[in-house]
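Fill in residues.
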């Protein structure tokens, strides 16, 4: 079987490799992917550093053309790449194709942004002096991405990094090297100069640690666990390096008595269980007022009964497998914790078998939960959702905000008053009204508050805040 190699200094290198196994069928080997070493990482960083002076001063038409060509190829291959994504991550095929489409849209957006780089010219307080305010590329960017969005998250980090003239060392999650390799291959063939984009696949303890230890990275953008995010922050502070963190969530979905029941159930089911609940924006806390609580739980249970858990590539599947055995164990451990804490298991919670061997778990719904339980405070990152009963809107808002996280929050209501108040007073970076908490557009800022995020927002024009530095220049003619 062919080994998909690392890209370092414009060359495909690496012989040590590991198998990429499908969680839908553990007999399905997606491919053999190189495992980089600490030395590989150092070489990649050196290559990116050497390539930075020329690329940072490259013309905007060159950057535009490369990013546009990349967008066009990703979109043209969306079914092929979507199948690859579904095989290696376990996301159902329609969701996987949708994610690939989003990656293409992100590259297309930043191809346009490359032509819209702007600055300011303002008069000085001192007569006769002109002041120019411009943005310049940050330098060599280390990019570390998670497994749950294996093509979209790399796209929304790599595209702006290149757009604004930075060079890149990219380490994807170990579980999903296939999508990472594909996107780097497309960019490489689109005409990036040697060393501008480097791919080093491998473990976080080796490749990731070598990145954290380097003094030559101007910035690191990281999406992943809260614990690892703290390590990225501490290492970056030591090196006086800019860093951007997107971490965990324990997102609330409030359902008020006046909500449209069908809208509420659809939003909650999508938020909590689609993509197997493996989204940092998933709603794992459903905070429901007394008047609608019983009807909502009954309707949610009926909805969950109608969902099919099966192979991600199989037509008619609504929920694919959990990403791997370790994540499955984490999910089932939390199910047992929920039972021991006194929550009522209203539906699901069982590991199930299908025609192909994989990591299949029923969508799991707890009721009679309290916000103090571990299942209500700790991120599970699986199809496990708790319903918390509250008496009214004021209590619902208080419970929704009672969490160390603050990424996304939702409310189901027909009250303009409550919707408006919730948007203003929710302690989350993103708020959804009568919509799932998961699912955001590619051209607007993404990010949270509290323990969910640190640093400037990702995506859209706000990406410039991280990937550039501001320069102020004075001129006396």
């Amino acid at each position: 079987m062919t080994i998909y190699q690392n890209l370092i200094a414009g060359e495909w290198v690496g012989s040590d490799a590991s198998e990429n196994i499908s969680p839908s069928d553990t007999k399905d080997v997606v491919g053999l992917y190189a495992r980089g070493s600490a030395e590989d990482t150092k070489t990649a960083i050196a290559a990116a550093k050497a390539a930075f002076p020329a690329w940072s001063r490259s013309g905007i038409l060159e950057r535009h053309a490369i990013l546009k060509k990349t967008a066009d190829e990703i979109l043209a291959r969306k079914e092929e790449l979507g199948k690859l994504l579904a095989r290696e991550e376990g996301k159902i095929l329609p969701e996987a194709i949708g994610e690939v489409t989003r990656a293409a849209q992100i590259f297309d957006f930043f191809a346009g942004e490359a032509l819209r780089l702007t600055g300011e010219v303002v008069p000085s307080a001192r007569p006769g002096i002109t002041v120019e305010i411009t943005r310049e590329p940050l330098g060599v960017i280390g990019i570390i991405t998670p497994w749950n969005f294996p093509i979209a998250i790399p796209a929304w980090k790599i595209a702006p990094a290149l757009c604004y003239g930075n060079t890149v060392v990219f380490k994807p999650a170990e579980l999903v090297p296939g999508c990472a390799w594909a996107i780097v291959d497309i960019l490489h063939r689109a005409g990036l100069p040697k060393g501008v984009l480097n791919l080093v696949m491998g473990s976080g303890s080796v490749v990731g640690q070598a990145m954290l230890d380097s003094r030559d990275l101007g910035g690191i953008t990281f999406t992943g666990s809260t614990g690892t995010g703290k390590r990225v922050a501490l290492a970056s502070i030591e090196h006086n390096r800019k860093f951007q963190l997107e971490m965990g969530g324990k997102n609330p979905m409030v359902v008020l008595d006046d909500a449209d029941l069908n809208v509420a159930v659809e939003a909650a089911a999508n938020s909590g269980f689609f993509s197997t609940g493996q989204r940092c924006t998933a709603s794992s806390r459903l905070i429901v007022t007394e008047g609608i609580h019983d009807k909502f739980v009954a309707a949610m249970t009926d909805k969950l009964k109608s969902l099919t858990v099966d192979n991600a590539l199989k037509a008619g599947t609504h929920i694919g497998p959990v990403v791997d055995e370790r994540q499955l164990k984490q999910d089932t451990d939390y199910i047992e914790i929920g039972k021991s804490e006194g929550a009522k298991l209203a539906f699901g919670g069982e590991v199930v078998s299908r025609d192909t061997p994989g990591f299949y778990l029923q969508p799991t719904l707890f009721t009679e939960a309290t916000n103090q339980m571990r299942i209500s405070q700790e991120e599970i990152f699986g199809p496990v959702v708790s319903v918390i009963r509250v008496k009214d809107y004021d209590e619902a808002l208080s419970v929704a905000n009672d969490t160390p996280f603050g990424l996304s929050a939702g409310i189901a209501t027909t009250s303009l008053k409550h919707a408006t108040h919730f948007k203003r007073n929710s302690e989350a970076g993103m708020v959804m009204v009568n919509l799932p908490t998961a699912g955001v557009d590619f051209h607007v800022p993404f990010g949270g508050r509290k323990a969910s995020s640190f640093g400037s927002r990702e995506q859209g024009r706000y990406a410039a805040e991280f990937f550039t530095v501001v320069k102020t220049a004075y001129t006396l003619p």
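The chain is about 40% helix and 25% strand.
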